């Protein structure tokens, strides 16, 4: 049996949800550039789950459903007070809380299409609430209830800070959510599909996916990019810091991709936003440092930036704490996970590949006292 390390190039599923062909990303046939410029996140969620854009009344209904389901059971919020919240990583907390949400959902084990759709809405709606509640409780503040008349993007920023975001902040965050929503068979989405292909429930699939997204080679890279920018500290230090890493053959977070060769089409949108938002919040140096790093990596390694690189300075400019960057990714990507879970259920077969055995040959058991 031949193996393909990391399953590179292996086609492991058919999907109608998103595609990456010749470095062009589409959701259900719509170019990501078009969606980033024009679509609301709620429209994209509908698109991914129904494989078509909503009509006005359908969009209004979905917005209403999401708004109605944003509140989480008090017991889930109380759970944040049962451990040292300052000592845990928010992605670990999110992984646990999504699993916990299942225990308060009477639909959790019901496998009908209707129950799965209700779970989809609840998961999408509540991810924003739990991430923002975690952040507030950690800061010693009370969680803020969502406002039903705000968009999903605005509600997230409102629940986080207590302030209704400025239009430019809402627009930028909406765009970031749109750009992160789905990405073909990335590691976390594949994880979700593998999990539910056993006919396990949607909460299990999303919990597993959060675990996969957490790693620094995947969604966790955005936090690592910010850590690097903070360590560098000023534009004068960029060259020596990056050169040192390259000379030591260390990976630079936010660069490279398994599928894209010329570049990640999402990065330019985030780069533009980073330029605008860092100017507005008075810290343009963060953008300038990012550009300098980018130019060095492209020149020396020929590696383009991926979605995580410029998203770091965007989220920082929006006032989001650095260890919440990956949870923010999850708040968007849950839409894609759910779409893939629904697609997997609709045409399921257990996912069970083979491994090539490379261990010792046949051995005979030796009792412990004789070893
Ligand atoms: C949302 C997302 O998940 S986007 C990806 C987020 N992850 C990151 O930004 C982490 C940094 N990037 C990486 O680690 C990789 O580029 C990945 C994991 C994204 C893709 O990895 P793979 O396709 O498995 O490529 P792999 O890790 O084998 O790298 C191939 C070569 O490019 C080099 N390379 C890849 N990415 C980088 C990087 N960011 N910095 C420096 N060198 C790199 C590797 O060192 C390797 O070099 P070698 O052949 O001389 O050993
Ligand atoms: O597709 C991948 O491998 C990772 C990625 O960019 C994403 O999940 O958005």
Automatic annotation (TrEMBL):
Pathway named in the protein's UniProt entry: Carbohydrate metabolism; tricarboxylic acid cycle; isocitrate from oxaloacetate: step 1/2
GO cellular component labels: cytosol
Residues of the active site: 257, 308
GO molecular function per UniProt: citrate synthase activity
SUPFAM superfamilies: Citrate synthase
Catalytically driven reaction(s): oxaloacetate + acetyl-CoA + H2O = citrate + CoA + H(+)
Signal peptide: none
Keywords of this entry: Transferase, Tricarboxylic acid cycle
Pfam families the UniProt entry points to: Citrate_synt
GO BP annotations listed: carbohydrate metabolic process; tricarboxylic acid cycle
Family recorded in the similarity comment: Belongs to the citrate synthase family.
Protein name: Citrate synthase
Organism taxonomic ancestry: Bacteria, Bacillati, Bacillota, Bacilli, Bacillales
């Amino acid at each position: 049996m031949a193996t393909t390390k990391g399953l590179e190039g292996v086609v492991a599923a058919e999907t109608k949800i998103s595609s990456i062909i010749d470095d062009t990303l589409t959701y259900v046939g719509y170019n990501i550039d078009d969606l980033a410029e024009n679509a609301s996140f709620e429209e994209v969620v509908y698109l991914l789950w129904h494989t078509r854009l909503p009509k006005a009344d359908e969009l209004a209904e979905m917005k209403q459903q999401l708004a109605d389901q944003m509140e989480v059971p008090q017991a889930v919020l109380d759970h944040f007070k049962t451990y040292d919240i300052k000592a845990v990583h928010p992605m670990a907390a999110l992984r646990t809380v999504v699993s916990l949400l299942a225990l308060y959902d009477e639909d959790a084990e019901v496998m009908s299409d209707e129950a799965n759709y209700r779970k989809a809405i609840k998961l999408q709606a509540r991810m924003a609430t739990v991430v923002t509640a975690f952040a507030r409780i950690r800061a010693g503040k009370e969680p803020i209830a969502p406002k039903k008349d705000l968009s999903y993007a605005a509600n997230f920023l409102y629940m986080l800070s207590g302030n209704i975001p400025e239009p430019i902040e809402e627009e930028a965050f909406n765009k970031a959510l749109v750009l992160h929503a789905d990405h073909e068979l990335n590691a976390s989405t594949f994880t979700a599909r593998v999990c539910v292909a056993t006919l396990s429930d949607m909460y299990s699939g999303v919990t597993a996916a959060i675990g996969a997204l957490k790693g620094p080679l995947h969604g966790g890279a955005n936090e690592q990019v910010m850590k690097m920018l903070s360590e560098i500290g000023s534009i004068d230090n960029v060259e020596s810091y990056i050169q040192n890493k390259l000379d030591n053959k260390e990976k630079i977070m936010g660069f490279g991709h398994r599928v894209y060769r010329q570049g990640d089409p999402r990065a330019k949108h985030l780069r533009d936003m980073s330029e605008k938002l860092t100017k507005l919040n008075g810290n343009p140096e963060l953008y300038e440092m990012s550009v300098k790093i980018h130019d060095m990596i492209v020149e020396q390694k020929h590696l383009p930036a991926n979605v995580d690189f410029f998203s770091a300075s965007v989220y920082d400019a929006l006032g989001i704490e650095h260890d919440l960057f990956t949870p923010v990714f999850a708040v968007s990507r849950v839409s894609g996970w759910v779409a893939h879970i629904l697609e997997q259920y609709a045409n399921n077969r257990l996912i069970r590949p083979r491994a090539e055995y490379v261990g010792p040959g046949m051995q005979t058991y030796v009792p412990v006292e004789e070893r």
